[in-house]
């Protein structure tokens, strides 16, 4: 915290100088200052006057030498019990719609088992929060925020919160205006400031505008945290001003890049985010909004599991989150012989909890005998549902269970299908050994191409021909949850042959 206070002293000193110069210029001008648009928030003139008074009253140490390292992450201040947001709205520019970041955050929340929020955004290339305040487009951000969202995420243009190239005082005034607008229509709304990142080391900003990326990131970091911790609480008109947080995405970039590349977080322009950078931003935003660890969440943006885990570690270090999503809860005991069942597909059958959509989470599951458990099942990245399997089977399955499935694949053929993977994840199982049986059925053999599905659990795999299947199962006889207490089943087409689609319709898990 001491480094942040030192940064505050230095920036307050610079801000006082800028403010004094600005007042001298304004005193020689005849043009009045245009008032802010009416949105239930104070106008700029009031904010600047209040800021001037605060600066005049604050003793400053101009010799302070700030530490440019990222601030120590800490858990959010204690407050009311956390409630997951039902809606999240993002305001920003290309740094927000690249991905799009809101969609990735939504995906991460769904995978973690939270109730899936309504998510939307207004992002205009190259624009500032000041632009969004004055925007007259029918889809403008102020009108959207007046709909009343649980969380509003604000991303400023990437150089405005810097001393060298921007106008950090205006950034803070605009952020405060949006904060008050969000609170005026939903008193429980939370505002998150999406801290952006420094340009890559080879960008033209160095060494002219900034000596190096560390200098640029230090300025971004200071002004985002100063907005959240000092400026908005001091100058907001809202009744509650303690529910604004910084999502330290730029700090996560700095931490990740301290270990070098790959992965390359920047796009080829050394400015925007490449896919790994987009994923890292979404992880930090998810961790900040949901106050949850990201370790173990699904890889997205085409990333491999090892790269995703590396980025998750960086995100968790800067957010300081401690909890986990509801799909990662503490496990309750299961007795030997207890069986859990899941039906995947659009039909509902009594006694078979159903994952009816291409992604989603159900649970906690009860055992076949009715005992409660902490287990939850997540289906992820399937492409569709179907009800064209065999209803008559020799396994004792209800007809609706054996008939319907979720599927993944490609109409473009076997090679394209091989690049696709769906998942079934079962979390919340107590340590122990389990038998896992997987079933699927689909009429016909796809014109001779076959319907061979590969299920992979840990280091083992099983291939199952689901064409007209009535009695075959893929069985993993003696498996244990992994280090994250998960049974993770990867669903793909089998590499041999010419299958275009893979299927999963029913799962039985028995405690040994």
Give your account of this protein's structure.
The protein has 13 helices and 19 strands. It has 512 residues and is α/β, with parallel strands linked by helices. The protein has two domains: 83-319, 3-Layer(aba) Sandwich (Rossmann fold), CATH 3.40.50.1110; 329-511, Jelly Rolls (Sandwich), CATH 2.60.120. Strand 4, helix 8 (213-235) and strand 5 form a beta-alpha-beta unit. Helix 9 packs across helix 11 and helix 10 packs across helix 11.
Write the layout of secondary structure elements.
Elements: H1 2-27, H2 44-56, E1 87-92, H3 94-97, H4 101-111, E2 118-123, H5 129-134, H6 141-145, E3 151-154, H7 168-185, E4 190-194, H8 213-235, E5 244-247, H9 249-257, H10 275-290, H11 305-319, E6 339-344, E7 354-355, E8 360-362, E9 376-380, E10 384-386, H12 399-403, E11 405-409, H13 414-417, E12 422-427, E13 434-439, E14 452-457, E15 460-465, E16 474-479, E17 486-493, E18 501-504, E19 506-511
Parallel strand pairs: 1-2, 1-3, 3-4, 4-5, 6-7
Antiparallel strand pairs: 6-19, 8-9, 9-12, 10-11, 11-18, 12-17, 13-16, 13-19, 14-15, 14-17
Helix pairs in contact: 1-2, 1-8, 4-10, 7-8, 9-10, 9-11, 10-11
Domain tally: 2
Overall number of strands: 19
Largest sheet, spatial ordering of strands: 8-9-12-17-14-15
Structural class: alpha/beta
- Rounded to an integer in angstroms, the radius of gyration calculated over CA atoms is 26 Å
What is the terminal separation in angstroms?
51 Å
Mean pLDDT: 85
CATH class of the largest domain: Alpha Beta
Helical stretch tally: 13
Give the low-pLDDT segments: 1-79
CATH architecture of the largest domain: 3-Layer(aba) Sandwich
From the spread of the alpha carbons, the general shape counts as elongated
Percent range for β-strand residues: 15-25%
Helix fraction bin: 25-40%
CATH topology of the largest domain: Rossmann fold
| Largest β sheet strand count, sense and barrel closure | 6 strands, antiparallel
Going by CATH, the homologous superfamily of the largest domain would be SGNH hydrolase
